[in-house]
Each structure stands twice: as C-alpha cells, then as structure tokens.
Write a structure and sequence with these properties.
It is built from no helices and 6 strands. With 76 residues, it is an all-beta fold. The protein has one domain. 14% of the residues are buried.
C-alpha cells in the first residue's frame, strides 16, 4: 500500500517559508485545521503566519492572498 507522496502537515513538524525573491525562513507548524488545508506556523523570527492549501496548485499559500510567501513542508 502506498503512502502520501509528500509530507503531511503535523503540529511540531518542520517547514520553511519561501519568500518572493528566493529567500527562505525556517518555521515550525503550530496548528493544523480544516483536515490539513489550513496551517499556522511560527517563523524563526517569532512571527505567526497562516497558510491555506490552494486547490489549483496544491501548494500552501499565505491565507487570503494569491501571491506572496508559500509554505514548504519538510520531512520529520
């Protein structure tokens, strides 16, 4: 039986925020809601951001925005 092809969002898991222009920032998932479609993370700078799964691109984009930072989930 096959598992997921990429990491699933879980509280405490590592992630990174990909900012426009190629900058990255480490983050930790602090909340997962809506069956994994909404994720809150705390960046290494202490900022809390919310990302929503975009159904068209299957990427986590900053909630309420069509452009801007995106979230990349990293394996445990």
């Amino acid at each position: 039986m096959l598992g997921p092809s990429r990491p699933l969002p879980r509280v405490g898991s590592r992630a990174r925020i990909a900012r426009f222009g190629g900058g990255f920032e480490r983050a930790t998932i602090v909340a997962v809601e809506d069956d994994g479609r909404l994720v809150r993370v705390r960046s290494e700078g202490g900022e809390t951001l919310e990302f929503a799964l975009n159904r068209a691109s299957a990427r986590f984009l900053q909630a309420g925005a069509t452009v801007g930072p995106r979230l990349e989930l990293l394996g445990d």
